[in-house]
Amino acid sequence: MRKNAPAIYVSVGLLLIWEVFARWLNEMYILPSPTAILQKMWDFREALFTVHLPATLQVLWIGLLISIILGIGLAIMMHLSHWSERAFYPLLVASQTIPITALAPIFVLWFGYTIWSKVLVTVLIAFFPIAMSMFDGLRSTKRELEELMRTYGATKWQIFWKLQLPSALPQLFSAFKIAVPLSIIGAAVGEWLGAQAGLGYFSKRMMTQLDGAGVFAPIVLLSTMAIIAVFIIRIIEKKYIVWRKD
Predict the structure, then answer these.
(1) Tens of pLDDT along 118-139?
(2) Are residues 99 and 9 in the same domain?
(3) Beta strand segments in the chain, E
(4) Residue 113: CB atoms within 10 Å
(5) Is residue 175 exposed (0-12), middle (13-18) or buried (19+ Cβ within 10 Å)?
(6) pLDDT tens digits for 181-205?
(7) Which domain covers residue 130, as residue numbers?
(8) Which of 175, 186, 169 minimizes the C-alpha distance to 61?
(9) How far apart are the first and last CA of the chain?
(10) Topology with regard to the membrane (predicted)?
């Protein structure tokens, strides 16, 4: 509890400042107060928690699963094959130079308002940090340890599984902590540009009604999801990476 105390104090302080300033401004459709946002979440609790939140979660877990498999697989392939590195590394970087807001409508055009248009946006955003961090982690293994294992007769695959892969775990978990919030943003962007359900779609619908609190309500849920997901990843990280200092 003491470790989280600074974050709690700062968060409460910022929320109080936000509440006071929003009430002083008295323009709730521009800057709603935290209490107004919570009230809106309560008023629309059935739609938010039974319709739109499950729709976004479905996009998230499918998109993250594909991103993890694609990112880790591509990183391992580039690490083990110099030809693959020269072939795919430039494409990996180029995939991040195209604005997501330009591709999302194209995905909607291809796949309609189905879940796959949102999943593709999520994957395009989330797989890059996983692939790059995993690739750099595999390459960061100390050469002295690799040479030591070769001296003892270890094969290339034994070095990979026993040394290189464990050495890459810290970077991989750091990538997960980046990719999860990015995937939430990707899902929301995809739903904002074309969907029939989801937190992004709900926020867009509230914006057309000039309902500031309604626009912020799903954003609060998205932020809460990201915080919880990163907290869970940190717990798993501490369990499996015991040599890292807290």
Answers:
(1) 888 888 888 888 999 888 888 8
(2) no
(3) none
(4) 13
(5) buried
(6) 888 888 888 887 777 788 888 888 8
(7) 41-240
(8) 186
(9) 14
(10) Multi-pass membrane protein
Residues 52, 192 contacting (CB under 8 angstroms): no
62 and 163 belong to one structural domain: yes
Number of other CB atoms surrounding residue 208 within 10 Å = 9
Q: Evaluate whether 120 touches 67 at the Cβ level (below 8 Å).
A: no
Task: State the Cα–Cα distance between residues 11 and 235, nearest whole angstrom.
Answer: 21
Q: Is 141 found in the same domain as 74?
A: yes
In a domain, 87, yes or no: yes
What is the per-residue pLDDT for 66? 92
CATH number at residue 83: 1.10.3720.10
Looking at residue 242, its pLDDT comes to 67
CB-side neighbour CA atoms (13 Å) of 40: 22
Residue 86's CB: how many other CB atoms inside 10 A?
10
The parts of the chain modelled with pLDDT lower than 50 are none
Decide: 40 and 217 in contact? Cβ < 8 Å. yes
Burial (CB count within 10 angstroms: exposed 0-12, middle 13-18, buried 19+), residue 246: exposed
